[in-house]
Specification:
The complex is a heterodimer of chains A (177) and B (355). Chain A contains four helices and twelve strands; from the N terminus they run ααααββββββββββββ. Helices cover 16% and strands 40% of the residues of chain A. In chain A, the strands form four sheets. Chain A has a five-stranded mixed β-sheet with strand order 2-12-11-5-6, with no helix packed on it. A three-stranded antiparallel β-sheet of chain A has the order 1-3-8. Chain A has a two-stranded antiparallel sheet with strand order 4-7. Chain A starts with a helix and ends with a strand. In chain B, helix 4 packs parallel to helix 7 and helix 7 runs parallel beside helix 8. The radius of gyration of chain B is 21 Å and the shape is globular. Chain B contains 13 helices and eleven strands.
Chain lengths: 177, 355
């Protein structure tokens, strides 16, 4: 068993408030900026593979007109912090049949700059939302969805080619009452 | 030309949960010397709208579109140096919580003097003199002795007065008062409001008053904008708003004001809460809480229109506007409410007359 004396052996004094050259370097190494190191050392492709996205609804079939709640869970599988660079400050989006926020019209015009989506080591983030079974067809107009099967998706807003890697889909059925 | 014109202002916050549209196509104007009120529940976008005027929106917020014209110049196009010149000098703000607005490690007098020295170029002695006069004007007793007090040595009401003195120190043309009396008790509230009004008249300053208290609006304002979920839902002259509200939300706000002598067992409230701005309801944002909502309200978002003519009233010039489908012919039913005025209008008793 190691004793306290093992750690202090070889030192001339262990009095408090006495300066020792050896004290300096170990103390400054105690805290490591994991986020900074991760940015430097973990490649972008690995970061994307580290983050998993899941979308789930409580049921698979809903009566026509009912609200459909969904939960999006994102998890960092790596034991180090991970920051994904997104295409815009919009970090993630949800879709219905590929339409962002179930809208046929472009809703947002985000600034032309990238965003950063940060995850602590092993962090799990949960977001909830709901689809009201309506599609936005104009800036101020919505139309109800017809019975049938719809695909709800959620993905982190990274390059389109790699979006599948950080996205997920689920299907729901709308049935007439 | 109005002193301030805000046109189609949209402010988004890019959060992890999603995009929060805190101000959505907000348009209004404030004339010189006018007292303009913005009213709504917490989270309606009142403060964000006002912070935008001084470009004080912090990350992850972005002023995404619109124009804010102050004396004809677009604040959003100005350089940071130009905006700094404007802040405190021409547009001043009274913040909601005076205690946090004041720096605890500087004396109250020094903080006010600093603003005067910076904005008006006064020397130390003159700035001190002006500060003492201002402290006296806002009702701080023994202003000269209090000059050297630290904020913690002031009571809540005195701190608020000090912040008002600071805001008025450079004779601004526009004073933004963001819930200036929320943290104060009602007796102090009445005094502070009187003081803001008097001082604004004395200095010929326009006021943009943000509050969730309709009583404060009635007392101070000439014109009012009611906001809900980041959108303006009604605009009217203060008197019109109280005697003839047009939007169901305004009606709900009014019916939830407690009255002395009211015989009802329970206070009438607006059911539900303000929606999460990440997930605003489809159609009219107010429809889940509206007693007059129909299917059309879930499918169509109403634009602000003139309630009498149904004509578009989205611009800055509109004095009367309500964003409800009842005024665009899209509702089958009608807004079935009446406004009862009980007792005499106290303003009439004071010798005023209504047109």
């Amino acid at each position: 068993m190691r004793r306290l004396s093992d750690f202090t052996s070889g030192r001339q004094d262990i009095e408090p408030f006495t300066r020792d050259r050896d004290d300096v370097s170990p103390q400054s190494m105690r805290s490591i900026d994991g986020g900074f190191l991760s940015r430097l050392l973990v490649p972008q492709w690995l970061k994307r593979r580290a983050i998993t996205v899941e979308i789930a609804t409580p049921q698979t079939a809903y009566a026509l007109g009912a609200q459909i709640p969904f939960e999006v869970t994102m998890k960092n599988r790596l034991p180090v912090p991970v920051t994904l660079t997104t295409r815009s400050p919009v970090l993630w989006t949800w879709t219905v049949d590929g339409l962002t926020e179930a809208s046929h019209v472009e809703l947002r015009d985000p600034p032309d700059e990238t965003g950063e989506f940060s995850f602590s080591r092993g962090e799990r983030k949960r977001f909830s939302g709901r689809w009201t079974q309506k599609f936005r067809v104009a800036r101020r107009e919505w139309e109800p969805a017809t019975p049938g099967e719809y695909t709800l998706g959620a993905s982190i807003n990274v390059d389109t080619a790699e979006q599948d890697a950080v996205g997920d889909e689920t299907t729901v059925r709308l049935v007439p009452e | 030309m109005a002193l301030l014109e805000v046109e189609d202002l949209t402010v988004n916050f890019y959060t992890e949960e999603g995009v929060v549209t805190a101000a959505d196509e907000v348009s209004y104007r404030v004339e010189r010397g006018e007292k303009f009120g913005i009213v709504g529940e917490s989270g309606a976008g009142k403060s964000v709208t006002s912070m935008s005027l001084m470009r004080l929106i912090e990350d992850p917020g972005r002023i995404e579109s619109g124009e804010i014209r102050f004396k004809g110049e677009d604040i959003l196009e100005m350089s940071e140096t130009e905006v700094r010149e404007l802040r405190g000098n021409e547009i001043a703000m009274i913040f909601q919580d005076a205690q946090t607005a004041l720096n605890p490690v500087f004396t109250v007098g020094e903080q006010i003097s600093e603003a005067i020295r910076h904005n008006l170029g006064y020397d130390d002695d003159k700035a001190r003199e002006r500060t003492i006069r201002l402290l006296d004007e806002v009702g701080i007793p023994e202003a000269e002795a209090r000059y050297s007090d630290y904020p913690h040595e002031f009571s809540g009401g005195m701190q608020q007065r000090a912040v008002i003195a600071m805001a008025l120190s450079c004779d601004p043309d526009l004073l933004i008062a963001d819930e200036p009396t929320t943290a104060l008790d009602v007796t102090i509230e009445a005094k502070i409001l009187d003081q803001i009004e008097e001082l604004a008249e004395e200095f010929d300053t326009a006021i943009q008053l943000i509050t969730h208290d309709l009583g404060v609006i009635a007392k101070v304002c000439d014109r009012v904008m009611v906001m809900y979920a980041g959108k303006p839902v009604e605009k009217a002259a203060a008197e019109e708003l109280f005697y003839d509200p047009k939007h169901p939300y305004t009606v709900g706000l009014m019916s939830s004001i407690p009255r002395i002598g009211d015989t009802r067992d329970r206070l009438q409230t607006i059911p539900g809460t303000m929606p999460d701005l990440v997930d605003v309801p489809t159609g009219c944002s107010f429809h889940p809480r509206c007693p007059y909502a129909e299917a059309a309200c879930t499918r169509k978002e109403p634009k602000p229109v003139d309630p009498d003519t149904g004509m578009d009233a989205t611009g800055t010039d509109a004095d009367r506007a309500a964003a409800c489908l009842a005024y665009t012919g899209d509702l089958a039913g009608e807004l079935d409410y009446t406004v009862e005025v009980q007792g005499e209008d106290p303003r009439l008793q004071l010798g005023d007359h209504r047109e």
